[in-house]
Amino acid sequence: MHTGSRARLDKWLWCARFFKTRSLATAAVSGGKVHVNGARVKPAHETRIGDQLEITRDSERYVVVVRGLSPKRGSAVFAQQLYEETVASQETRARHAELRKLAILASPTPEKRPDKKSRRLIHRFKQGI
């Protein structure tokens, strides 16, 4: 871990492997998807150890506390040492994952593609003929 007391927010998000590229991290911060201690900030914001970050990525929301800083991107094992996810965040993400699984089970996919006759019936049904 880095001995310094500060790091750019976009660079820290990239080093902690929340985003695949630094430009994606910059876009997320600029777009309001990342908040530091409850406030919307810019990509060059100085991140410090102990800051609480709220990160929204796709449909998932992470609430993490910064535990370390790094000058460069490392392995996934090393990246997990840079932050600690809150218990409430873990429970919320697990609950949302379970709901997504149940939603998939509620609307199963068909076993095969409809043939020509079935497609015609589907079109007639949708058009109200």
Total number of helices: 5
- Residue share in helix: 40-55%
CATH superfamily: RNA-binding S4 domain
Radius of gyration: 21 Å
Distance, first to last CA: 67 Å
Please give the number of β-strands. 7
Task: Give start-end ranges of low-pLDDT stretches.
Answer: none
**Structural category:** alpha+beta
Quaternary: single chain
| Share of β-strand residues | 15-25%
Sketch the topology as an H/E string, one letter per element.
Answer: EHHEEEEEHEHH
CATH architectural designation:
Roll
Question: In what order do the strands lie side by side in the largest sheet?
Answer: 3-2-5-6-7
In the CATH scheme, what's the topology name?
Structural Genomics Hypothetical 15.5 Kd Protein In mrcA-pckA Intergenic Region, Chain A
Q: What gross morphology would you assign?
A: elongated
CATH class: Alpha Beta
What is the number of domains? Answer: 1
Topology:
Layout: E1 7-8, H1 9-15, H2 22-30, E2 34-36, E3 39-40, E4 46-47, E5 52-57, E6 60-66, H3 76-80, E7 83-85, H4 87-106, H5 116-127
Antiparallel strand pairs: 1-4, 2-3, 2-5, 5-6, 6-7
Helix pairs in contact: 1-2
Summarize the structure in words:
The protein is 41% helix and 19% strand. The chain has 129 residues and is of the alpha+beta class. The protein has a single domain, classed as RNA-binding S4 domain (Structural Genomics Hypothetical 15.5 Kd Protein In mrcA-pckA Intergenic Region, Chain A). The strands form 2 sheets. A 5-stranded antiparallel beta sheet has the order 3-2-5-6-7. A two-stranded antiparallel sheet has the order 1-4. A hairpin with a 2-residue loop joins strand 2 (34-36) and strand 3 (39-40).
